[in-house]
Design a protein that fits this description.
The protein folds into 5 domains: about 220 residues, Toll/interleukin-1 receptor homology (TIR) domain (Rossmann fold, 3-Layer(aba) Sandwich); about 160 residues, Rossmann fold (3-Layer(aba) Sandwich); about 60 residues; about 80 residues, Arc Repressor Mutant, subunit A (Orthogonal Bundle), CATH 1.10.10; about 210 residues, Ribonuclease Inhibitor (Leucine-rich repeat, LRR (right-handed beta-alpha superhelix), Alpha-Beta Horseshoe), CATH 3.80.10. About 30% of the residues lie in helices and about 15% in strands. The protein is built from 27 helices and 35 strands. It has a 20-stranded mixed beta sheet that branches. The chain is an alpha/beta fold and about 1000 residues long. Helix 11 packs parallel to helix 13 and helix 15 packs parallel to helix 17. The longest helix is centred in the N-terminal third of the chain and has 26 residues.
Length: about 1000
């Protein structure tokens, strides 16, 4: 073969083999090792996976350094546009920064590689660069700093070992130059050393593809593996993995999936993302974990990091953010990638890195972790996984693992472990911080002291994590956050809205950033560690001087400020749990005078009673004109101060007070929404409330001396009225527009319930509960009762009935009418129709002596629970078999009932006390039923149950009867067996 042909063949090998080796290595190598420390270093899995190279003296690149000859091919590789998208490994193409020497570049490239692949071809020794590379490689190999795999392509190992053949020709030329004598000696030694290593020989392989597969496998098997995150030790992680696997849908190769992992700071979003990366990233040709995106880097820098890590090209240059976005689209648009963008906190970051799925090739998966759900929504990320706090059991398990390596606690520490784990309230980062802090403490009394501190003051590391979310808020959101943390945690949105104007959007912002949670029924809650963080911020704002704090909540600090009379205009709110006061405090009349901006004053106690450690000298004291909330349990005086101006008051709660009256005369109450004087047993009258045009809740429970209420309440649009146990009232008239009413008084001479008739509109009424001597008249239902309660539908998924919800009682979802005992002298209750109650899911008509159930009961197609116990019907309508959603039916104490209709859909059936019931054929249906729980106690006329048991055994595919109760149903199982208890089946 001619020299030119040999060179061409060698060049073709260099090009195709190197490219295929690279591609093969991408698929088989552990990419998470990219730019990692040597394996002897222990790397925290939560630390940066990207950019670790910075700041370390010697970092190593997992990808091999390829030493080979073929300069013309290198030029082709660098100029080919198609190859620009290939990952760029350490190589011998001399792509060096301007100003670097060749030797410096080679040293850096080789020293930062774990592995060297030396391709020894016939022309290898003709390149002094190749020989110098080999000398350095073998020097590092002798120092055990690099692994080496020789590939003998078209040459014999002996030719290399002894420098024969083409190698001899090259060395003859070098030895002719006296100045190269020392180098020649080192090169010969290096060639001998590399030839003595176990390698691959092209002549032993079927073809180049076979050789490439062997080489890639050999390299991958020898490379050290980065220790994967230990999923076994991460409590609850496998459950996260299962749910996220469904969202990732790895098997779908045609689409790009973008998934958000959302949750509060420190809850474990990054750890979940890291575990996903460990588990799935190797299934992708290219991947990158871009950690802590929010940590002060500009977007252009982040774009460069992303491209450098996926393309393995440290020389990516971007002139602007727009250029970076274009570069990502062009170079990654055809690549299948697995990318994690960790801790994204700005929309601009996501727009610059992954604005659209089309930026990446089909089958790509992009995971974004963030505290801000609004960010994901604004970028069109619809697949969002919410990470929630650990429950108490898992939290304790995590704490034990972290604190003492999972070892059983010493005597006396078990309860301390439980207490410490609960202080974290399920937040993983807090568990880590607490465990680290407490693990060095060995004495029980020191643990007690530290836990007492942690109950009040957030641990520094935890506070830093949570404070980051607060710092990212605008000023209005920060204000609402601090109000919730210090005053309104646990309150209803409707309630908070009354005190903080235009707060709905702010609350939603906080919820999107996982700083508050909004329950289905509208209650606002904040994680206790966020509450602690918010309160610590308030302390810091005042330089820890209580008299200048915006809000005060600590009993010791409040006691100091009130006792020393040092309050200032900076104080906006006081919230004191009276039960936490150790000593009695007598307040001066001037104590609230300096607090001109006092808006919220709350002295509360959880236990009823009018005894308090907080006393006033007289009623001649001054309250702020800005006061919106006055909540003072066990108020010690008989009347409010004469100069009290309640025009700004929204809530006035004076529970268990010593009040005889609130004030004299009429006062302007334009903003009053809640008036609560529960348990004020000396209160004889209410003031005129005609000016309280916005009053929504009037709570008078247990005001035993109250003899009348002002007639003006009939002109108010109350949402809630509670007059339970108001023994002095003789009669009550309830107005139409109520949402909730509670009355209980057997001595009431009259209860008149002015509800709209079936053709009218219920504009506000949603919940009602009354106990007393009640005459009830609802659409189709009329008679007397001892108890009436109902609630109405707020939302329904059944579109077919939504058009009915605006008229009459069509919106009721539950209805409960009963007498407290069955009457042998029947006072019939009329039950004519259920047509006006199509949304009922629960219906209870108990002890009403109803003689007939109307056939139109079949119209209650949403009904799930039906209790008709204590009524006098003999038969039930056959149409009940059409109630497809009915699961629970109770007919207990229906003494005249003789037979049942077909009820194969019912799962739980109670027939206790149905003394005349003789047959159960109705529930058998067509040889099948769904019973799980069946009670037939005291059914003395009932025949044998052998039929139902035989169906039980012979009806495959049907629910299994779990419990059968047969007390005092003597003949039920046949003559040979007395049934006297419940049988699990």
């Amino acid at each position: 073969m001619s020299r030119s042909c040999q060179s061409a063949r060698e060049s073709r090998f260099d090009y195709s083999t190197i490219v295929h080796l690279k591609r093969g290595f991408i698929a088989g190598a552990p990419r998470q090792l990219l730019c990692q420390k040597p394996p002897c270093d222990q790397i925290d899995p939560t630390r940066k996976l990207r950019g670790i190279l910075r700041g370390n003296k010697r970092m190593q690149n997992i990808f091999p350094f390829f030493s080979f000859h073929g300069f013309l091919v290198i030029i082709f590789c660098n100029s080919s546009q198609a190859l620009r998208c290939l990952p760029q490994f350490s190589r011998d193409d001399r792509k060096l920064e301007i100003g670097d020497t060749i030797a410096d570049g080679l040293v850096k490239a080789i020293q930062t590689s774990w592995f060297a692949v030396v391709i020894l071809s016939e022309n290898y020794a003709t390149s002094t660069w190749c020989l110098e590379e080999l000398r350095l490689i073998m020097q590092l190999h002798s120092e055990e700093q690099i692994k080496v795999l020789p590939i003998f392509y078209g040459v014999k190992p002996s030719d290399v070992r002894y420098q024969e053949g083409s190698f001899a020709t090259a060395f003859q030329r070098y030895e002719a130059d006296p100045e190269m004598e020392e180098k020649v000696s080192k090169w010969r030694r290096a060639l001998t050393q590399v030839a003595n290593l176990s390698g691959k020989h092209s002549r032993n392989c079927v073809d180049e593809a076979d050789m490439i597969a062997e080489v890639v496998g050999g390299i991958s098997s020898r490379l050290p593996r980065m220790k994967s995150t230990d999923l076994i030790n991460l409590v609850g992680m496998e459950a996260h993995m299962m749910k996220m696997t469904l969202l990732l849908n790895i098997g779908c190769e045609d689409e790009v999936h973008m998934i958000g992992i959302w949750g509060m700071g420190g809850i474990g979003k990054s750890t979940i993302a890291k575990c996903l990366y460990d588990r799935f990233s190797r299934q992708f040709p290219a991947h990158c974990f871009l950690e802590n995106v929010s940590k002060g880097y500009d977007i252009k820098h982040l774009q460069k990091e992303l491209l450098s890590h996926i393309l393995y090209d440290e020389d990516v240059e971007l002139w602007s953010m727009e250029a970076g976005s274009q570069e990502i689209k062009e170079r990654l648009g055809h690549q299948k990638v697995f990318v994690v963008l960790d801790n994204v906190d700005k929309v601009e970051q996501l727009h610059g890195l992954a604005k659209d799925p089309s930026w990446f090739g089909p089958g790509s998966r992009i995971i974004i972790t963030t505290r801000d759900k609004g960010l994901l929504n604004s970028c069109g990320v619809n697949n969002i996984y919410e990470v929630k706090c650990l429950d108490d059991k898992d939290a304790l398990q995590v704490f034990k693992k972290l604190a003492f390596g999972g070892r059983p606690p010493s005597d006396g520490f078990e309860q301390l472990f439980i207490r410490a784990s609960r202080l974290a309230h399920g937040l993983p980062s807090a568990l880590v911080a607490f465990a680290s802090h407490l693990s060095a403490i060995v004495a029980i009394d020191e643990w007690e002291d530290e836990l007492a501190l942690l109950e009040t003051f957030p641990q520094k590391n935890v506070q830093e994590i949570l404070r980051a979310s607060y710092d990212g808020l605008d000023q209005y959101d920060k204000t609402v956050f601090l109000h919730v943390a210090c005053f309104f945690n646990g309150g209803h949105l409707r309630y908070i809205r009354a005190f903080l104007k235009n707060c709905d959007a702010r609350i939603n912002h906080l919820a999107a950033k996982c700083l508050v949670n909004i329950s289905i029924d509208g209650c606002i809650s904040m994680h206790i560690l966020l509450v602690q963080t918010g309160r610590e911020i308030v302390r810091q704002e005042s330089d820890w001087r209580p008299s200048k704090q915006r809000f005060l909540w600590d009993p010791t600090e409040i006691h100091y400020v009130l006792d020393s009379n040092t309050g200032t205009r900076r104080v906006e709110g006081l919230s004191l749990h009276l039960c936490e006061m150790a000593d009695t405090l007598l307040l001066r009349n001037s104590v609230f005078g300096p607090m001109h901006n006092l808006t919220f004053l709350k002295f509360f106690q959880h236990l009823g009673g009018n005894v308090s450690n907080l006393q006033l000298i007289s009623d001649d004291y001054v309250l702020s004109r800005n006061l919106k909330l006055l909540h003072w349990d066990a108020y010690p005086l008989t009347i409010l101060p004469p100069i009290f101006r309640p025009h700004t008051i929204i809530e006035l709660s004076l529970r268990y007070s010593k009040l005889n009256s609130l004030w004299d005369g009429t006062k302007l109450l334009p903003n009053l929404r809640i008036l609560d004087v529960t348990g004020s047993r000396n209160l004889r009258e209410l003031p005129e409330l005609s000016t309280a045009v916005n009053l929504e809740e009037l709570i008078l429970e247990s005001c035993t001396s109250l003899v009348q209420i002002p007639e003006s309440i009939n002109r108010l649009y109350l949402r809630k009225l509670n007059m339970m146990y108001c023994d002095g009232l003789e009669g009550v008239i309830l107005v139409n527009d109520l949402q909730e009413a509670s009355l209980s008084r057997w001595g009431l001479k009259r209860i008149i319930l002015n509800l709209p008739h079936s053709g009218a509109t219920l504009s506000s009424l949603t919940d009602l509960a009354i106990q007393g001597k009640i005459f009830i008249k609802l659409s189709g239902l009329s008679g007397t009762g001892d108890h009436l309660s109902f609630s109405s539908v707020q939302k329904t998924a059944h579109q077919s009935v939504t058009h009915l919800l605006n008229s009459g009682f069509f919106g009721l979802k539950s209805l409960d009418i009963k007498r407290f005992s069955y009457r042998l002298d029947p006072v019939n209750f009329s039950c004519l129709s259920f047509a006006d109650f199509p949304c009922l899911t629960e219906l209870k008509l108990i002890n009403l002596n109803i003689e007939d159930i109307p056939e139109d009961i079949c119209q209650l197609q949403l009904l799930e629970t039906l209790d008709l116990g204590g009524n006098d019907f003999v038969y039930l309508p056959t149409s009940m078999g059409q109630l497809a959603m009915l699961k629970y039916l109770s007919l207990s104490n229906c003494r005249r009932l003789k037979a049942l209709p077909q009820l194969s859909q019912v799962e739980r059936l109670v027939l206790s006390g149905c003394v005349k019931l003789g047959s159960l054929m109705g529930i058998l249906g067509a040889g099948r039923y769904n019973l799980l729980d069946f009670c037939v106690e005291k059914c003395k006329s009932l025949g044998s149950l052998m039929g139902i048991l035989s169906v039980e055994k012979s009806a495959p595919g049907r629910n299994e009867l779990l419990e059968l109760s047969l007390e005092n149903s003597a003949s039920s199982l046949g003559e040979s067996q007395q049934a006297s208890e419940s049988y699990p089946l």
